[in-house]
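Need tokens for this chain, all 107 residues.
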Amino acid sequence: MSQTDEKRSFKDQAMAVLENVIDPELAVDIVNLGLIYGIDLDDQGLCTVTMTLTIAGCPLTDYLNEAIAEELMAFDEVNEVKINLVWEPAWSIDKMSREAKLELGIH
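Here are the structure tokens for all 107 residues:
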């Protein structure tokens, strides 16, 4: 397996476990909300999660960061988790999965 395949495989696995991180205000996971923009793992085991929040100043930032780190640190190859919080592109309901929209009653 090439290094690219290993990283893609890790990203898929990481996205799957991040579905366990539920936004308590919306009761939908952060992956289906469309908050995760990218996940990278370097050779030293640093996992960088590029993400946004539904609103600036979200009171759940610390909770979400801790929950994300807890899920990703379960991987043997992850030694550290860094959250790269970005505001561009801005989050909108268009980033949500179909399932998340249905759960929240958005059509």
